[in-house]
Specification:
- Helix content is about 80%, strand content about 10%.
- It has a domain of about 80 residues: Helix Hairpins.
- It is mainly alpha-helical.
- A two-stranded antiparallel ribbon has the order 1-2.
- Helix 1 runs antiparallel to helix 2.
- It starts with a helix and ends with a helix.
- The protein is rod-shaped and about 100 Å long.
- Strand 1 and strand 2 form a beta hairpin.
- It has two helices and two strands.
């Protein structure tokens, strides 16, 4: 079942990846100015040298995936909220009908006893 914390986790991951993308853009600018920028990626307990363009592509794909998951989750949450509202209306209608029936039953009982 989806929870608000799941949405929060995805949002935090998206924010983190956006920061990584910004840092990679800075590295790209430094590399174009002639500065030596090296990017590493963590594979298990080891840091491995990674191509800057490949790192940018990986982060872009990850951001795309996370954004898609957030959209799906928001859509699911909206559907569940709509279903919840419909159920609440149904319950209110049933309660109203029960109260009306109880009033009528009380009136009928009062008429029989008099």
């Amino acid at each position: 079942m989806l929870t608000a914390s799941d949405l929060g986790t995805l949002t935090a991951q998206r924010n983190e990846n956006e920061l990584v993308k910004q840092e990679l853009d800075v590295c790209g600018q430094e590399a174009s100015e002639g500065s030596d920028s090296v990017v590493y990626k963590l594979v298990g307990p080891v840091l491995i040298k990674n191509d800057l363009d490949e790192a940018k592509e990986t982060v872009d794909k990850r951001l795309e995936f996370i954004s898609g998951e957030i959209k799906k989750m928001e859509s699911t949450i909206a559907k569940k909220e709509e279903q919840s509202q419909q159920l609440a209306m149904t319950v209110q209608e049933m309660q109203g009908a029960m109260q009306k029936a109880a009033v009528e039953a009380a009136k009928a009982a009062a008429m029989q006893s008099s």
